[in-house]
Amino acid sequence: MIRQYLGRLARELDFDPALARQVEREVEDHLWEAVESDPAADRQEAERRAVAKFGDARAIAAQFAVLSVATLARRVGLAGVLLISAVFLAMKARVAWYGVVPCPLAEETKALGEFVLSIDRWAFWFAVVSALAGCIYILSRRPPGGFTRRYRAELRRFSLLCAAATAALVVCVAADGALTSLRLIGAPWSSAFLVPLLSMAIEIACAGMLVSSLRSMVRRAALTARLAAA
Length: 230
Prior knowledge:
Blueprint: H1 2-12, H2 17-36, H3 43-54, H4 57-100, H5 110-139, H6 149-184, H7 194-229
């Protein structure tokens, strides 16, 4: 009966194999401990009582899924701040390189470059403010007791802040790419160009990781909501 119960738990959490394996291990240990401490002589009856006391498999799976979403949301909040910080360091490294290897904008592209730079600055600071607000907000929330209406609203607000930060970061990275292109296109090729190109690769990777993390959290939240409502 314990094996059957663990199988039902795993099926309820099949949208997240890692979580399913973790829950299966934890629940299995608990159930076998309950069986060992049961005075019943009949092993099957002891297993039946242990499973009955533990609760409905779907309800237990929903509880674990909600806690997993809450943990993931906190990680996304922290990751957003760290990834934007990494983008900032990459930008500073590129600016420092321009101080050593001057690559001024051509006269005909200066106006365009200044316009793109203003967009870049506004987008970056908007991303910083949104990411910090989202991180502080989600870290200040109490651990959810279930996928309640209140927690869904909190998660929705956090997701909007994360989406704003992510969109702004993507605009910032795109603007950085445009500015880097304007500086390097007219200059003769040099191996030193690897520095700005590498910094742009870091920025693109950070933006991609943030997009992926946000999508994963939104997908996990939707699946958990469906499980909790069933």
